[in-house]
Amino acid sequence: MKHNPSRDVVPYSEAVDITTVDEPVELDGRLIDSWLQGLPETTQRAYRREIRDLLDYTGKGLRYISLTDMQDYECDKLQSKANTSRARAIASIKSLYKRLSESGYIKVNPASLWRAPKIEETLAERYLTPEQVDSIIAQAKTERDRTMLSLMYYTGMRVSEVVALTWKDVLSTPIGATLKVYGKGGKTRYISIDEEMTQELNALRAVGSPCVFPSGKTGDCMTTTQAQRIVVAAAEKAGIKASPHFFRHAHASHLFNAGVQGPEIRDELGHANIATTNKYAHSVGGKALGSVLRRK
Question: Is 280 part of the annotated catalytic residue set?
Answer without folding.
Answer: yes
